[in-house]
Write a structure and sequence with these properties.
This protein is α/β, with parallel strands linked by helices. It has two domains: 70 residues, Ubiquitin-like (UB roll); 133 residues, Rossmann fold. It has seven helices and twelve strands. Strands 7-8-9-10-11-12 form a six-stranded mixed beta sheet. Strands 1-3-2 form a three-stranded mixed beta sheet. A three-stranded antiparallel beta sheet has the order 4-5-6. The chain is elongated.
Length: 265
């Protein structure tokens, strides 16, 4: 009996090499799914780009301000110069923050946030004065970092005056040359921060003669020799105890907190 012809053998080999029909259909189905998903992703991406950059729905229409105490919202908005009408996504929030700090030194911190779909929020933290320096007929406010941030015509209530009175010769002059005026101001701030609350309410002047010769003048005429800004917590405790022990004294010295002294009546 004759065997299969060459053509028949070729057909059988072709049939054996072709994948089964269900498998081919599965591959085609997967390919169609991939193509459809790719098209959908492209459309979604294009739609998102249009929505964020081209649509009128996500453009800046409102700038809100919160946290102001001395500054007005109008001043903050003017300094921020937010590009109203621009796509919200394109607003450079870091540039706005830098602009606000540069134009309004009273601002200690600011957070610029996007309020979708139409707003920009400016959350401001203002500096608070802990000391004031009289300069002519004006007053310079100094914050708790020693930063002189604003000049005002009226001194804020309850804020002590800072007097820098270093001598032109001797140890006070040497202290000024060594530390510089800015460092002496920061030391005065350290002292003002450390003074007990009961004493701080009556403190009119923080006087700096040198780095380690800082004193307080109180509203009732009493004086406190504080020394340097070091060991502030210990000096505060000592001063509180000393004032209780000598309520009629007019002068208190806590420059060495382990050896305090009081005098006068």
């Amino acid at each position: 009996m004759a065997g299969p012809t060459t053509a028949e053998r070729g057909e059988r080999q072709q049939e054996s090499s072709d994948p089964p029909l269900p498998r081919r259909r599965l591959r085609l189905s997967r390919l169609r799914t991939i193509i459809i998903l790719a098209i959908l992703l492209v459309l979604l991406g294009a739609g998102s780009v249009w929505l964020l950059y081209g649509s009128q729905w996500t453009r800046v229409e409102k700038v809100s301000v919160s946290g102001t105490r001395v500054l007005t919202p109008a001043q903050v908005r003017a300094a921020a110069d937010v590009p109203v009408g621009a796509p919200l996504i394109s607003v450079d929030t870091e540039a706005i923050e830098a602009r606000l700090r540069r134009k309004l030194p009273r601002i200690d911190a600011v957070d610029v946030v996007r309020a979708w779909p139409h707003g920009i929020g400016l959350k401001v933290v203002e500096r608070s004065p802990v000391l004031i320096v009289q300069k002519g007929g004006k007053f310079v406010e100094v914050d708790d970092d020693g930063v002189r941030f604003a000049t005002v015509s009226e001194p804020p209530k309850g804020v002590p005056a800072l007097e820098l009175t270093p001598a032109r010769s001797g140890s006070s002059a040497a202290s000024l040359r060594r530390f510089g005026e800015d460092r002496l101001v920061r030391e005065a701030v350290r002292v003002a921060d450390a003074v007990p609350a009961a004493v701080a309410r009556h403190t009119l002047v923080v006087k700096v003669r040198s780095y380690d010769a800082i004193s307080l003048e109180l509203s009732d005429g009493r004086t406190v020799a504080w020394g340097s800004g070091e060991k502030g917590a210990s000096k505060a405790r000592t001063l509180t105890a000393l004032m209780k022990a000598s309520p009629d004294a007019r002068y208190f010295d806590v420059s060495v907190p382990t050896a305090p002294a009081s005098a006068g009546s």
